[in-house]
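Example (one chain per record):
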Amino acid sequence: MGITTVKQRRKKYIVENKLTPSESVNEREFKVIAGGMLESLIPMKMEKSRKGFVLKSKIAGMDSLQSYFSEAVSKDMFLDVVSQLIAIVKECERNLMNVNNLMLDDEYIFLDRKTQIVKCVFWPVFKNEHVFEVARFFHDLPFRVVFTKNENHDYITRYLQYFKSHSPFSLKSFEKLIHELLDQKVTNHSQPHTDSTQFGDRQGLSNETIRNVVTIGSQTNSSPNQQTQCPQCGHEKLPNAKYCVSCGSPLYEVEEMQNQVLDISEVLGIKDDLAETTILSEEDFDNGTTVLGADSFEETTFPYLIRERTEEKITVDKPFFRIGKEKSFCDYFVANNNAVSRSHADIITREGRYYIIDHNSTNKTYVDNRVIPVQQEVEIFSGTKVTLANEEFVFYI
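Predicted structure:
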């Protein structure tokens, strides 16, 4: 990723990405975003400067998620944002967009306060060296939020505990958890109360302990409901509304939010080590034998290729995945191209890394437009452009 900057001018944001010499624009993805074909991704334009290409997005009428989360955020507000972000990741996957190019950073995610709709910045570039990890982003997100007081914060415990009990990360099971938390309007009292910790002495706190510790800030006599009009535009406020439906301004004083930061890591005793042993909660013991980490088998993800000419998605689901025009012994058969050799190249998966090897093909194999040596493994990364003869592919993880 090139040099990325975000500037705020009044109520507008300008986000720029100055590409490095080694980076190039993925034209297919750029056309999708620039044309506004995916409403959840912010449109952009490309400009050429003396030093190279610049991708630029302008955002008006929205606030950054960083700004939104710096104010008092309720359970439903937080989980709704998470639910929308999950939907955006899934939409990128369905449309064969490289999720690693999605700017999963609260500074580059924007929200319309009137509609509560979330949109993201996506950079359509090859050779992205700064990958935004989906699991790490969602795990770290609560630590950037100012949560409201006077709410039961047990859902934060369940949210963070998910990452300790589900490895590898599964977007499907994570989405299921978020939907469960959104529907859970009241605390489940089916479990007898004890002073012992819910997830083990080192990794959690009892519900009573959380309720005692989560006293965020000092008590105030003021209430957002005391106001009847928006202080900015004078529009009449709706009952229990936190933001003006006309201008989007907050309907409470800034002073009410001071000293309200919830230090989740201190309150919950959660460390950044996701590998420690976890004691399953009561819902894991509802019926008979429980398979530990069963949700982790719901989705097995494989790297894949996008064939540029046909936009076909090719799943690389074998340790040695052969590509060529001989249908009988290739894992992927390249049709309608006689320039590709019968057994042209293999993509090799080894210990979480990926390589390509050319099998002495007639018209050679290219990685990012550079010919590779015959019978020598060359490492490839997400976004790498692979060309077999004159047939172009893009490799994604």
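Caption: The chain has three domains: 1-66+88-125, 67-87+126-185+194-297, 304-396.
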